[in-house]
Amino acid sequence: MSVAEQTLESREIPKRKSVPVLNRVLDFISSVRFGVSLLITLVVLSMIGMLIMQQNVQGFDTYFASLTPAEKLVYGRLGIFDIYHSWYFLTVLLILSLNIVLASIDRFPSAWSYIVKPKTWATKKWLLTQQRSETVDISNASIDDALTTVRLVFEKNGLKTLISEKHGNQYVFGERGKFNRIGAYIVHVALLTLFLGHFVALQTGFDADVRMVPGDKTDQIQMIQFDLDKKEKFNVQLPFSLTCTDIQQKLIDPRGSIDVTNTLDWRTQMRIDDPAYGTKIADISMNKPFNYRGYRFFQAQTIPVGNARTITLDITSQANGEKQLLSIPRLGNASLPDGTNVEFSEFMPDFAFNNEGKPDTRSGDYNNPVAVLNVTPPNGERTRVFAFAGNIAENIPVGAPKAGYKWRLAEYEKSPYAHILSIKYDPFNGAFVAWYFGGFGLIAALGFVFFFSHKRVWALVEPGRDGSTQVILGGNANRNHVGFEERFSRIVTDLKRKRSGQRE
Asked: Which residues face 414 on adjacent strands?
């Protein structure tokens, strides 16, 4: 056997080292393809939550009753009625966040190197293989003059320049928008902020209701707990008290009903009495929620029983027939010239007598509106008075003159009996952070990524033929290639003008 044969027999083929399982798992989790798949899954789940009414939305009980038994069973078992709190939604959110973090850790150093260690020189062969390249001869110019000319042209076209020397060659490097290289990681930060804010809000916050009736005071709210078609409420103690001072419904047609279709806006005013922070007045409208100590108050609905925010009384004196108008706010009072005190006690939109012969309202509509007053003459006893909007015979007890005056309801500003405020408790302002820093930050970051680009141009300046100087240009951009080509063409045109001595 020859020496060569012995050598071949004794040589062992090296085994390929297998990549550790942990590394392979981390590579898979941090891959772009896996991240995009997770993001698509999250979008699909969010769309399902938008298309199928969630159980914490007003009117869910009616929606649930309209579903077939099969739909109720399937949707309920899959947790679709509360999809944003489901285990699989939160799991996808967690894994996607982990993917973003790992991908950023893996790829950020290379992106950051574009900023701290830019490539300022390149070989002639490499320059000629770039996205755009061009060779320009500048006659009757030394190397130094050519370097200065190229630098001025670069700066004129918005590039930040740097002149360097490598291996005896002279280079001019120009770039613009280098921070666009880390735009993707700004998007990552915004996404993580969005996810974290909503996760914190979902885990630490809750939804509640509070009924606002002018004059009522409460230090409790009704916590809402859902179990499919069952909506349970229980009281939760507040660290402060709420007093409703006013409610208003701005109508399209003041003569119409107080239905939603005839409404421009709802407004609720309340006073907050807080032992720790004093007194504060809150004004809540449809597009103007109110934030206080992690509690966010929204207009949710009304109790559509007709009432009046203010009333105007037409009062006729029995003594001399003199007439006068008197305006009183809801639950307020006013005085007549003779000192008679008139208090607005109650409003009945559809006055009638009930089965027991007592005054009542048949409905919440303004069919037969009556203002109930407490009238106290000077040095007299308080008397209950009914002021009707329409004319009523004086021989009927409720319409007879009282306390020396004939009372009639001249005008009234329509308003519901009460407003219902929806409360979202978010002690760490997770939703605020998510929307303002995550949401708006994401929009700004995406705009920065897609509407700007990192443009780089290199110029190798070397001696040419017949005493001329040759400039080899090469450049590229990470996106918006059309815009880069236009800028590169302007650079080439400007250099050729400099070569021929043309004025700009």
From this structure: 308
